[in-house]
Amino acid sequence: MRRVINAYVEGLETTDVDNMNKDNTNLLVIVADESIDEDISRIYKKTKELIKGLNTRIILIGVGKSRLFETLMTLMLQYDRYDIYSVDTKDIITGKYIEALEDREPDISEVELFAYGDNIVSSEISDIAYEIEECVKNGDIDGLKKVIEDNTLILENLSDTMNKMKRICKMIDTEEFVSQMNELKEDNKKLKEDIDKKDNTIKEIEQRIANDSDEISKLKSKCNELETNNSDSSKNNAYTSNVISEYKTVQTQLVKGNRVKIILYFKEITYVRYTNTLVMMLFKYLKLRGLKIKLLIYDNEASMSARYSDLRVVNCSDYTRDKELILEKAEKLVIVEPGQMIIEDMLTLNGDESTDVLIVYDRMHKMNDIVEGNMVTKYFVLNSSNDYNKLKKQMKINDTDCVITSIDSSINMDNDWKIVGDRDFLDIPSITDYKRYAVASESYEYTKYSKLNSKISNKPIINTILTRSKINTLL
């Protein structure tokens, strides 16, 4: 489970201090700012437990000046943990930002840029002391000089660092600190009582909002219709102006001359690891089985993603210029502007044979779909139970068998980890040494994915998707 403390980040479950060291946490993002400095003792101890457990990757992000950030930085460096970053504002901390940090392997040289004098030294003191001791024992004056010269920067800051570490230890362990923490707990208890008193008022407001939801939905639909009409009126200028951010869903039953038999549609709500690989393997699997197939990936941040390095990435202007070549040659295409023209052209593509399967991977993170209709089988890609619970009504997710999620998902489980609903979703387990063997042999990845089962439901992933979409009837 991917969790975050002291922030809301899309794709991560927000947790609190009491639950930050749950056994099923494989990634914990700690956002340290002044607002949680008061919990420094508990957070320090729980973070240390997680580090010693070796099963949880911890990413520490400092926002502004924070005593907690400095304390946890020192702790992490003592255990050679270098996932330490500093930002000016919480607004920078998004789902995409965390994904980028997960893909990195930071080393000590990066942290030195802003933490050397105060913290790095503490993790190297023992090594330097040992070298000095050996030189003194052996009477090696030249060796002693070299040790001192090589570690001048560390030794210059040694006294400041030791004093700082003493202050941190004293702050955490003294009775004065414990007394201050108890006072804060009492204040927190009183605050909670005040909040509870207002709970009935909040519930009444929520009920009124629920009663008005139908009217709000009608107004939103009207606004979307007006925005769509306005977008259509300026369509002729869209290719040379700003990127299209609003678009109209293409209805397959209204497209004349449709030559596609089945559309397999993946709509990403939040990032789920290995989904991109799954989509690529579905494409390869169906092509090897002799089907005529095309893949369209919609992603407005495609130009910044290394995962598309071997694919053609186009906007509407590029497509208009090279339309005939793209339609004739491109089997896989990454699209950064979701205009109607491209998807409609793919549906009505002329040729000797019709297209058996069109796979659409929608990473635009918009409410409306690229395409819909009776021939479309849709999967929702979402990372956590929070995403599922917040959006299942809004997105009309009626069953979990149309959901692809992470292997540690708690969808339809209560706080005591008891199952309270169906869990027929698909998850994508990792394959041991996949990258190493896949590079050497294409048949390896084909064979592994064709036999891969979902960890939770134990369903064969590829066959389940093909059966639900009725693609198996074409094979």
Number of helices: 18
Largest sheet: 8 strands, parallel
- Strand order across the biggest sheet? 9-10-8-11-7-13-14-15
Mean pLDDT: 81
Instruction: List the domain count as a whole number.
Output: 3
Indicate the overall shape: globular
Number of strands: 15
The CATH class of the largest domain turns out to be Alpha Beta
Distance between the termini: 37 Å
Protein structure class: alpha/beta
Summarize the amount of helix as a percent range: 40-55%
Q: What Rg do the Cα atoms give?
A: 28 Å
| Beta-strand percentage range | 5-15%
Poorly predicted regions are 116-121, 231-244
- In the CATH classification, which architecture of the largest domain applies? 3-Layer(aba) Sandwich
Predict the CATH topology of the largest domain: Rossmann fold
Structure description:
- The protein has 3 domains: 2-175, no CATH class; 206-232; 245-474, Rossmann fold.
- It is built from 18 helices and 15 strands.
- It has helices at 40-53, 67-78, 95-102, 108-138, 141-150, 152-156, 158-173, 175-197, 199-211, 213-233, 275-288, 316-321, 323-329, 340-347, 385-391, 434-440, 442-450, 461-469, and strands at residues 2-5, 13-15, 27-32, 57-63, 84-87, 250-251, 260-268, 293-298, 312-314, 332-335, 355-362, 371-372, 376-381, 403-405, 426-427.
- The strands form 3 sheets. Strands 9-10-8-11-7-13-14-15 form an 8-stranded parallel beta sheet.
- Helix 15 links the parallel strand 13 and strand 14.
- Helix 4 runs antiparallel to helix 5 (141-150).
- The longest helix is centred in the first third of the chain and has 31 residues, at 108-138.
- It starts with a strand and ends in a 6-residue tail after the last helix.
